[in-house]
Automatic annotation (TrEMBL):
Keyword Membrane: yes
Localisation: Cell membrane; Membrane
GO cellular component terms listed in the entry, alphabetical order: chloride channel complex; plasma membrane
Catalytically driven reaction(s): chloride(in) = chloride(out)
Molecular function, one GO term: chloride channel activity
Family per similarity comment: Belongs to the anion channel-forming bestrophin (TC 1.A.46) family. Calcium-sensitive chloride channel subfamily.
InterPro entries: Bestrophin, Bestrophin-like
UniProt organism field: Poecilia reticulata
Alphabetized UniProt keyword annotations: Cell membrane, Chloride, Chloride channel, Ion channel, Ion transport, Membrane, Transmembrane, Transmembrane helix, Transport
Membrane topology: Multi-pass membrane protein
Source superkingdom: Eukaryota
PANTHER family, A to Z: BESTROPHIN (PTHR10736), BESTROPHIN-3 (PTHR10736:SF2)
Protein name: Bestrophin homolog
Transmembrane segments: 36-54, 75-94, 234-254, 275-297
């Protein structure tokens, strides 16, 4: 889940900006520290074996293997493959956020266009809004773990007041192999048309505006459902993961500091700690981790709180 840090950036000064980079919650350090420690540990073990365990003849063989791995590891197109994959996933993630269905505009139209100060008019507006919320809830149950845990079954949806027992029977009688989020949209359209016939909606233009807004709302829901249904092809994920991990497996051997007395090109210094290789691991694997989390977590988690509904006017009565 995204961690908000905008206020920290706005209040950061030249001397305190490092505090933002060192934040632990939601940071790349928290996400990657296990893999980073494992890579550093494996590198250290190989370095100690090369320096303390191998014989002179075995060291010469290891040096040849290290130079070979270092030479051909650069032929793995990690930057190109990972950059293409990151662009694909980030664009997909942002489009999911842009297509989250917001109910505000539709509720404003219902409140202003559906007339009636009596009990029936209040129930009519409330039922229309409830159908909108029910549509969004059915979508969020399929794409958000938080909402699915809050409403694991239709029983919980009925208990919370989003659906009446009579509506549940109609909902369950509709056979469909896919998500039935569109059923409340049909109920909404029928009820809005009935309200126009009864004069609760005084103008056909108002009815058209409400239905057009509902169609837009349904389009957002369908787009979100499509993103959840059709994911990033597994081949892309496999190619990128294999490329990154193969590259750093080769780096474990190819980036070892070799004996400077042997005169190998590029091995004039023996620094023990591969600073730039560790930074490269941090950047590439951090990039990979972030996009994998975006792929498997799906859209932005949308938390639905516990609602305190008036059962007498919503779930306890048949919809008008």
């Amino acid at each position: 889940m995204t961690v908000t840090y905008s206020s920290k950036v706005a209040n950061a000064t030249f001397l305190s900006f490092h505090r933002l980079l060192l934040r632990w919650k939601g940071s790349i350090y928290k996400l990657l520290y296990r893999e980073f420690i494992l890579f550093a540990l494996l590198y250290t073990v190989l370095s100690l074996v090369y320096r303390l365990v191998l014989s002179e003849q075995q060291k010469r063989l290891f040096e040849k293997l290290s130079i070979y791995c270092d030479r051909y590891a650069e032929q793995i197109p990690v930057t190109f493959v990972l950059g293409f994959y990151v662009t694909l996933v980030v664009n997909r993630w942002w489009n999911q956020f842009l297509n989250l269905p917001w109910t505000d505009r539709l509720m404003f139209l219902i409140s202003s266009c559906v007339q009636g100060k009596d009990e029936y008019g209040r129930l009519l507006r409330r039922t229309l809004v409830r159908y909108v919320n029910l549509t969004s809830l059915l979508i969020f149950r399929s794409v958000s773990t938080a909402v699915c845990k809050r409403f694991p079954t239709i029983d919980h949806v009925v208990e919370a007041g989003f659906m009446t027992p009579e509506e549940r029977k109609v909902f369950e009688n509709v056979r469909s192999p896919h998500l039935k989020y569109w059923i409340p949209v049909v109920w909404f359209s029928n009820l809005a048309s009935k309200a126009r016939q009864e004069g609760r909606i005084q103008d056909s233009i108002d009815l058209q505006n409400i239905l057009n807004e509902m169609n837009l709302f349904r389009t957002w829901c369908a787009t979100l459902f499509g993103y959840d249904w059709v994911g990033v092809p597994l081949v892309y994920t496999q190619v990128v993961t294999l490329a990154v991990y193969t590259f750093f497996f080769a780096c474990l051997i190819g980036r070892q500091f070799l004996d400077p007395t042997q005169g190998h090109p590029g091995h004039d210094l023996d620094l023990y700690i591969p600073i730039f290789t560790l930074l490269q691991f941090f950047f590439y694997c951090g990039w990979l981790k972030l996009v994998l989390f975006s792929v498997f977590l799906g859209p932005t988690p949308f938390v639905v709180p516990q609602l305190n509904l008036d059962r007498r006017s919503s779930a306890g009565r048949r919809s008008p």
